[in-house]
């Protein structure tokens, strides 16, 4: 083994290019695979673990107390299929004032519960204590991190309701309430619903949950169930953003693995072929066939292990910011998603080198079978007669002789040419995927920003920063002033917290006055245009089990109004919806606009307009244009980095192939130079030898990249892209993708081609 190690170490030092290529491709592959596994684990494991630990409710059901009694609801806990139940709990709605615990004004769902324990939905108290008497309330802390101690003791003074003091903060994975009080206190808040929490024996699918709830409520009065929320919608909402990033990271990981396997196999195969004389010498001095195979496997393992170690370190370093982005805005409760599990790193550290060894074993076995005498005599020369028929056909064409010779070279080594073409194919597929994602995300980022007219100015009411300034002008006067300063179009937005009857978690409504939402912002349905019409994004609808056409009841400030979901937005926060100003008038008629979107005439000076608005009222703050989109920046950034990495790796694969071909054909090059081939013709011949492979790889890689792009954009849970954003392929782009394959081939071939051109005749023929 000492001799095997010395021979392997010498091979690693001698074959620096192959060592670097293997290490780099394994590094890239390990990083992308580790991130993909980390996202997959974070999207499922933490939620399931935390939900089980809290005995989270499979279904949170709200009942109409006018139609069903508490005694009847208590009986549902003993129905077939119910594993455990908690309740009944009185459920009330309290309208909180603005800025209470950083919340906007609106309804707060409060549940009366004697203690946080129980068979279902064990609430974790994060700070303070559970309410023990009248006048005390515990608030569900939906934000990540620890609540602030100085918020304890905050008073809640709602009109017509007793004053409540915050005595604690808690979290519920079931999202069964926004706050809790004692049952006696809930009775004083005039409850409008009764809550039951269920855990069922068959909770895996939505159909099973519906059937289980139907069996539990069998015999109750019709329409007594006003709403039901399942844990499946919570889990999907929890992992929605991670699921959005997972498809394209996983695809890049798979592409990296395939490129890695192909290039490693190509490198080892080339090392065996070009090093046949070295193999013969090793066998002649006493190395057994198994030891020769061990030399080549060790030669591959050294850079593979180094690349795997660096890739694991890089993946763990990138995990925290990527997981933070993936789960940003998600109410995670007690489910921690900050770091990768150590087992994922262990799996990559063990699996990636093993994959490299398995890939390298097949070509390394050629060294096992090669007799010593044949290996020493054969050297690195290609087999006689291989590809001669193709060379004769090309020689009879009108192509320059250097070009025809180059086009025929791949047929002398068909296996090596195939693996090189496959590497280029995957490189082109990666570039195509990245280009498609970039086009889609740029179109998504521009949703609603393009249209007739000139530049856009955003006007915020209340000043800017931590010291809000009350505007001097009224709502109507502000809009009139904005128009008088030269606005072509003004769109006002009112913002308030609202509740959906039957759902415990509050929502935030944006109500628009002026021009309607652009049709391009909707993937299904239409923009709200009248009172009682709302629209929301896929996350909001998924979390509440809603779809276009469904009806809900909105409530705020003690008022209720029926509403219909008329459109699905491309994207929206999981807790926000949008509607019309008429709907806001039914719920909160005294509310004023919080900001305005102003579109100016073409050619207008947006900066001068913004300065004029700021000077008109100290309570107004203007900004020119739109802020960036974090998801767009993230996807484009990730895809660009991975594309550059994999394109570079594919080019290194081409570089390795051309370098091996040049070494194999040293004597042929010497003979060609001796009969008059110039250095430029040598470069042309060498580059042409892989240009055809690049063209074929481009032709085959483009459809693969298009399919991968469609697979990614069709499986993004938090954004529902319309067909106009998916159909991004046009003739100029496709031509550019085809050129990408040729560019990868030429980029990888240039350096060894120049090296071959500088080779002297004496150096090429010195072994003759």
List key phrases describing it.
six-stranded mixed β-barrel, 768 residues, alpha+beta, ten-stranded mixed beta sheet
Number of strands: 20
So what's the oligomer here?
A: single chain
Number of helices: 23
Strand content: 15-25%
Q: Over all CA atoms, what is the radius of gyration? A: 34 Å
- Biggest sheet record: 10 strands, mixed
End-to-end distance, in Å? 35 Å
Low-confidence spans = 328-337
Based on Cα principal axes, name the global outline.
elongated
Approximate helicity band:
40-55%
> Averaged pLDDT, please?
78
Which structural class matches the secondary elements?
A: alpha+beta
Architecture blueprint of SSEs:
Elements: H1 2-14, H2 16-53, E1 59-63, H3 70-75, E2 82-96, E3 106-112, E4 124-128, E5 136-140, E6 155-156, E7 164-171, E8 179-181, H4 183-188, E9 193-200, H5 206-216, E10 225-230, H6 231-274, H7 276-284, H8 289-326, H9 342-369, H10 372-378, H11 388-395, H12 401-408, H13 414-445, E11 456-461, H14 475-484, E12 487-500, E13 507-513, E14 522-525, E15 533-536, H15 538-544, E16 551-556, E17 559-569, E18 576-580, H16 581-587, E19 595-600, H17 606-616, E20 620-624, H18 630-664, H19 666-674, H20 679-713, H21 723-726, H22 731-758, H23 761-764
């Amino acid at each position: 083994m000492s001799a095997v190690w010395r021979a392997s170490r010498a091979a690693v030092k001698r074959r620096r290019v192959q060592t670097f290529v293997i290490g780099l491709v394994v590094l890239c592959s390990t990083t992308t695979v580790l991130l993909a596994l980390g996202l997959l684990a974070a999207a499922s494991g933490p939620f399931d673990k935390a939900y089980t630990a809290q005995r989270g409710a499979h279904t949170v059901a709200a009942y109409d107390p006018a139609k069903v009694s508490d005694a009847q609801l208590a009986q549902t806990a003993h129905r077939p299929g119910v594993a455990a139940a908690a309740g009944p709990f009185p459920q009330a709605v309290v309208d909180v004032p603005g800025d209470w615990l950083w919340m906007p004004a609106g309804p707060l769902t409060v549940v009366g519960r004697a203690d946080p324990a129980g068979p279902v939905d064990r609430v974790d108290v994060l700070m303070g204590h559970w309410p023990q008497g009248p006048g005390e309330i515990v608030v569900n802390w939906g934000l990540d991190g620890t609540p602030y101690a100085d918020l304890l003791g905050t008073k809640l003074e709602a009109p017509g309701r007793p004053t409540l003091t915050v005595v604690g903060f808690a979290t519920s994975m079931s999202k069964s309430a926004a706050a809790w009080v004692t049952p006696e206190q809930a009775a004083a808040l005039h409850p409008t619903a009764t809550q039951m929490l269920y855990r069922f024996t068959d909770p895996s699918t939505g159909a099973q949950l519906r059937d289980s709830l139907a069996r539990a409520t069998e015999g109750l009065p019709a329409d007594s169930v006003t709403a039901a929320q399942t844990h499946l919608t919570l889990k999907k909402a929890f992992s929605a953003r991670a699921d959005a990033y997972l498809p394209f990271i996983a695809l890049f990981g798979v592409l990296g693995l395939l490129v890695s396997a192909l290039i490693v196999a190509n490198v080892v195969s080339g090392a065996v072929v070009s090093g046949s004389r070295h193999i013969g010498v090793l066998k002649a001095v006493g190395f057994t066939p198994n030891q020769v195979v061990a030399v080549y496997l060790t030669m591959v393992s050294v850079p593979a292990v180094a690349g795997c170690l660096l890739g694991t370190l890089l993946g763990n370093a990138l995990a925290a910011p990527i997981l933070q982005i993936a789960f940003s805005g998600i109410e995670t409760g007690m489910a921690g998603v900050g770091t990768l599990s150590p087992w994922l790193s262990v799996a990559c550290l063990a699996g990636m080198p093993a994959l490299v060894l398995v890939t390298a074993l097949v070509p390394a076995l050629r060294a096992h079978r090669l007799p010593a005498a044949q290996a020493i005599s054969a050297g690195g020369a290609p087999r006689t007669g291989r590809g001669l028929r193709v060379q004769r056909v090309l020689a009879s064409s009108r192509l320059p002789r250097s070009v025809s010779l180059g086009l025929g070279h791949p047929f002398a080594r068909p296996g090596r040419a195939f693996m090189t073409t496959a590497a280029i194919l995957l490189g082109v597929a990666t570039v195509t995927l990245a280009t498609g994602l970039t086009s889609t995300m740029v179109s998504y980022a521009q949703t609603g920003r393009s249209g007739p007219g000139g530049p856009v100015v955003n006007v915020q009411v209340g000043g800017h920063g931590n010291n809000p300034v009350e505007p001097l002008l009224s709502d109507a006067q502000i809009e009139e002033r904005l128009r008088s300063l030269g606005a072509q179009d003004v769109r006002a937005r009112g913002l308030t917290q609202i509740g959906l009857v039957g759902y415990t978690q509050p929502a935030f409504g944006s109500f628009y006055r002026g021009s309607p939402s652009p049709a391009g912002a909707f993937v299904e349905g239409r923009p709200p245009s009248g009172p009682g019409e709302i629209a929301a994004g896929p996350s909001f609808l998924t979390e509440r089990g809603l779809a276009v056409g469904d009806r809900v009841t909105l409530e705020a400030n003690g008022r209720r109004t029926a509403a219909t979901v008329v459109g699905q937005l491309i994207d929206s926060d999981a807790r926000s919806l949008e509607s019309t100003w008429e709907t806001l008038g039914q719920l909160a008629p005294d509310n004023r606009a919080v900001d305005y979107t102003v579109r100016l005439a073409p050619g207008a000076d947006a900066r001068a307009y913004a300065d004029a608005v700021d000077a008109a009222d100290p309570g107004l703050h203007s900004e020119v244009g739109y802020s960036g989109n974090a998801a767009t920046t993230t996807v484009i950034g990730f895809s660009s980095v991975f594309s550059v990495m994999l394109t570079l790796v594919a080019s290194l694969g081409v570089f390795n192939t051309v370098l091996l071909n040049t070494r194999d054909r040293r004597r042929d090059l010497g003979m060609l130079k001796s009969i008059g081939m110039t250095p430029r013709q040598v470069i042309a011949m060498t580059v042409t030898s892989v240009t055809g492979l690049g063209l074929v790889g481009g032709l085959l890689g483009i459809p693969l990249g298009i399919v991968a792009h469609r697979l990614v954009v069709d499986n993004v849970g938090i954004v529902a892209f319309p067909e106009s954003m998916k159909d991004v392929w046009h003739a100029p782009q496709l031509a550019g993708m085809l050129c990408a394959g040729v560019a990868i081939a030429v980029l990888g071939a240039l350096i060894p081609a120049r090296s071959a051109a500088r080779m002297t005749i004496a150096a090429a023929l010195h072994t003759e």
